[in-house]
């Protein structure tokens, strides 16, 4: 069955006894709102079948991996929709068998969401007449259809998943990276399960911020490339190197794990998830070090331009700490002065200007220094303290949303650099 893409009824899929939720699947996370939206779609479909006898409604495409080792049809894509439709069938016929709902769940998140959604679906049908319920049952067996794509190759199944999810509503780049690196772990199913469980406990917003505002721009600024916003087209930069390659650089990378550097590659698979965890922790340590140095008092400005300078500051401190594994207050304060100099220099500060400043391009008519590039060239921490931070004269300061704000920020930079008089 499913040797080729097929269009089959929802009931046909739900009655498959070998349909299985593999360990690498993320938890079932649909909310009551998602369920409600699906119910509205199904009601529309049922209305259409009443008007047009031959009407069929495609609920969606599902991707399955036909695992020949145990005969299971593993769900690669479509889990949320399949489980929700299974819950609908169970609510309509409490005594009926829906094999996928008998699968043992390893996630408490899945269990809680299934319980909550089942109660919501049962309440929904409590208000329906027996005739309306019957129409739903008939629709599941004859009018509602899945497009089923199955393959015996797990890598091919993941490739289809990537393709499917980058066409319609694109997944976030880090979700595509997750799918890629899980594919690299396919020979270690237990490790995959543990990795997925740990990943799902991490706030996806934190992962998005880490890549979008830190790792991706830093990787480009080191190379004097101003870069752009991180998108799914850029995920190759974080695919790492395969453990199986025998190239010297790959062998050296394998031996270096799990020591990470932003400007160095890592081994694909498990190391990617360790890489993400490592930099989430390091970023947290950086912010704690900034607070310890009492610099958080200097990061309380307002406005878009100030927030860009603040992001630039955290990026450069993260890269410095990534390179030298140290939190020297003297260095961090000098990096503060460098990062906020661009705020003083500009009347209005946008992200494009920050990117130019980061790679050492001219800002206005003033020369700047490529701090990330210079940090990469430093072989020891004392080299960092030798990097000259050019100061602005009072006449060169352009930032003036109000005189008080300008004087306050100027005062902060002076204090950081140990200057007691005017900036000359």
UniProtKB/TrEMBL annotation:
Q: Where is the GmrSD restriction endonucleases N-terminal domain?
A: 17-181
- Which InterPro entries would you find in this protein's record? DUF7834, GmrSD_N
Q: Which residues form the DUF7834 domain?
A: 191-395
Cited PANTHER family:
DUF262 DOMAIN-CONTAINING PROTEIN (PTHR35149:SF2), SLL5132 PROTEIN (PTHR35149)
For this entry, the protein name equals: Uncharacterized protein
């Amino acid at each position: 069955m499913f040797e080729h893409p097929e269009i089959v009824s929802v009931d046909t899929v739900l009655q498959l006894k070998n349909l299985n939720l593999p360990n690498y699947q993320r938890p079932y996370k649909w909310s009551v709102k998602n369920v409600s939206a699906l119910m509205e779609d199904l009601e529309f479909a049922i209305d259409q079948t009443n008007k047009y006898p031959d009407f069929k409604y495609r609920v969606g495409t599902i991707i399955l991996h036909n695992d020949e080792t145990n005969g299971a049809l593993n769900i690669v894509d479509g889990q949320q929709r399949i489980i929700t439709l299974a819950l609908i069938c169970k609510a309509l016929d409490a005594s009926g068998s829906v094999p996928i709902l008998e699968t043992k769940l390893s996630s408490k998140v899945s269990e809680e969401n299934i319980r909550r959604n089942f109660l919501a679906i049962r309440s929904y049908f409590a208000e329906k007449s027996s005739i309306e319920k019957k129409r739903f049952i008939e629709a599941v067996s004859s009018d509602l259809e899945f497009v089923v794509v199955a393959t015996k190759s797990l890598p091919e199944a993941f490739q289809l998943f990537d393709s499917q999810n980058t066409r319609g509503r694109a997944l976030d780049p880090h979700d595509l990276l997750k799918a890629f690196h899980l594919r690299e772990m396919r020979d270690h199913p237990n490790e995959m399960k543990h990795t997925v469980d740990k990943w799902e406990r991490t706030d996806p917003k934190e992962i998005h911020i880490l890549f979008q505002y830190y790792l991706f721009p830093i990787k480009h600024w080191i190379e004097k490339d101003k870069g752009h916003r991180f998108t799914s087209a850029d995920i190759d930069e974080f695919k790492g190197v395969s453990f199986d390659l025998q190239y010297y650089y790959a062998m050296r990378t394998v031996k270096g794990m799990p020591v990470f550097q932003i400007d160095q590659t890592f081994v694909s698979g498990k190391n990617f998830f360790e890489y993400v965890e490592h930099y989430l922790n390091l970023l947290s340590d950086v912010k704690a070090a900034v607070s310890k140095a009492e610099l958080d008092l200097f990061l309380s400005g307002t406005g878009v331009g100030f927030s860009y300078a603040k992001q630039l500051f955290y990026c450069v401190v993260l890269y410095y700490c990534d390179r030298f594994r140290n939190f020297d207050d003297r260095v961090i304060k000098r990096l503060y002065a460098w990062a906020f100099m661009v705020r003083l220099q500009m009347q209005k500060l946008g992200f494009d200007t920050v990117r130019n400043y980061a790679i050492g391009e001219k800002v206005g008519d003033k020369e700047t220094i490529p701090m990330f590039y210079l940090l990469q060239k430093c072989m020891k921490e004392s080299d960092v303290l030798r990097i000259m931070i050019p100061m602005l004269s009072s006449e060169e300061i352009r930032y003036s949303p109000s005189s008080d704000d300008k004087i306050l920020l100027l005062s902060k930079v002076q204090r950081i650099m140990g200057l007691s008089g005017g900036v000359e």
